[in-house]
Every structure is written in structure tokens, then in C-alpha cells.
TrEMBL record:
Protein name: SNF2 N-terminal domain-containing protein
InterPro entries noted in UniProt: P-loop_NTPase (IPR027417), SNF2-like_sf (IPR038718), SNF2_N (IPR000330), SNF2_RAD54_helicase_repair (IPR050496)
Single GO term (MF): ATP binding
Pfam families assigned to the protein according to its UniProt record, in alphabetical order: SNF2-rel_dom
Organism, as annotated: marine sediment metagenome
SNF2 N-terminal domain mapped to chain residues: 3-214
Length: 238
């Protein structure tokens, strides 16, 4: 049996933690890293393959997944609506995957017909072909048998208490290089100061490294920014 879980980049580590807790006996392969590492990940035998939407689209485009590797017993698309307005390559990649069962996880149901057609176009494409042009109530009625919805009110006695949740992210290649450049600059600067190094000098060095971890100055973009955007979109959608 083979399962594929595709999620936003910022949710990848959370999925790893959940799967380790829920199904420790299953072999999990997290597809990430450079091109060579990802090719090795796809070639590794596993029960569950976990990757993010952008990586999947890139690897299918690069031919890392042969036709037989595009078939799974179950496909789980986590936070699917957060990538609705991203690149067309993501949607094309998801349509190339075949699976006996397809599940989508989302914080809320779409509020317009186009959202329903997008969502179920990736889950039950055969039923969507005849649904174009239907009103929102008609779409909700047609696809209601495929929806399992749970609200906070329904699950109030089963939900854990609210707690602070940390999300660990890997720097992308550009950000990692910028971090190494700043680290070298600060090491050289502190070395030149010699015995006159003070706590303020160390604090300034750490602050510069923290800034690079937040985003690269020339781009104002980073894995943290993209993860934050995903979270905001999920909250606003609900």
C-alpha cells in the first residue's frame, strides 16, 4: 500500500510529528532537499510519501516521478484551498496523480461556486464535468455526500486545550546562502574586535542572523513568510 500526503511547506514538519504519533509502524519518506536528495526520496520504498505542493509540481515537471510512481492507494491534500490561486503547475501536477481514494483537508468550505468546482475537480473530476454552471446551493447539495464537516461546537468536549504551536522550517537555498554569508561576516567582525568584544557586539550579530532567518532583505521573501501567508489564508477562509 502506498499513500501520498501533499501539504503547504509550512505544514510539513507538523505532519511528520502527527504521523510519527499516529502510525509509528509505517515507513515515512519526507521528500525535500536538493534535486539529488529528492530523487533518492522518490526512489525509496515507503508506505507514506510526504511533500509540499511546490516540490511535487517541480519534481513532476523535472521527471523525477515515472508513471508508475504517480499511482497511490490514497492521496491526501492538506490545506488544499490555500494553493488555489498559486501556480497552474500545482493544479496540473495534482491532476497527474492517480489514487483509489482522494481526501482533501480544509479549514472551511468554499463560499463561491468556483471554489467548489476547484476542490472537487481534484477529488471527483467525473462529477464536476456536469456541474459547471450550477449555483452554490446546487453544488453544495450535489457534493454533500462527499463532505465530512466537524465544527468546534460539535467537537468542543474532544478538542485539546489551546496551546502554543511551534512550526520548524528549513531555509530555502537562497536564504541558507544568505545566512552563511552573514555568519561569515559576523565571525570576521568579531574576530577583528578581539578582546574588546562586548555583549552588545554579540547581540548585534545574533540580530542580523535572526533577520536573515525571517526573510532575505533584498527579496522580502522566505519560508517563514510563505508559511505565514498559508496560515493567514487558512484563518481568513474559515
Amino acid at each position: 500500500r502506498r499513500a501520498m500526503i501533499v501539504c503547504p511547506e509550512g505544514a510539513r514538519r507538523q505532519w511528520v510529528g502527527n504521523l510519527t504519533h499516529w502510525a509509528p509502524s509505517l515507513l515515512l519518506t519526507v521528500v525535500c532537499g536538493d534535486n539529488m536528495q529528492r530523487q533518492l526520496d522518490w526512489d525509496t520504498q515507503a508506505h507514506i510519501y510526504l511533500t509540499d505542493f511546490l516540490t511535487l509540481a517541480k519534481d513532476i515537471e523535472n521527471g523525477f516521478l515515472t508513471k508508475d510512481k504517480l499511482a497511490f492507494d490514497i492521496l491526501v491534500l492538506s490545506n488544499l484551498l490555500t494553493v488555489r490561486f498559486q501556480t497552474r503547475e500545482i493544479e496540473s501536477a495534482l491532476r497527474m496523480l492517480s489514487a483509489e481514494r482522494r481526501w482533501a483537508l480544509t479549514g472551511s468550505l468554499p463560499g463561491e461556486p468556483e471554489g467548489w468546482l476547484y476542490l472537487f475537480g481534484l477529488l471527483t473530476p467525473d462529477r464536476v464535468r456536469s456541474a459547471t454552471g450550477l449555483t452554490l446551493p446546487d453544488l453544495q447539495k450535489r457534493f454533500s455526500p462527499y463532505v465530512l464537516r466537524r465544527t468546534k461546537v460539535e467537537l468542543a468536549d474532544k478538542l485539546p486545550r489551546q496551546m502554543r504551536h511551534e512550526i520548524w522550517l528549513d531555509l530555502d537555498d537562497h536564504q541558507a546562502q544568505a545566512y552563511q554569508d552573514v555568519l561569515k561576516e559576523e565571525r570576521d567582525r568579531l574576530a577583528k574586535l578581539g578582546g574588546s568584544v562586548a555583549r552588545t557586539h554579540l547581540a548585534a550579530a545574533v540580530d542580523r542572523l535572526k533577520q536573515v532567518c525571517n526573510f532575505t532583505p533584498e527579496l522580502l521573501d522566505s519560508v517563514k513568510v510563505r508559511a505565514l501567508v498559508d496560515l493567514v489564508e487558512e484563518v481568513s477562509a474559515s
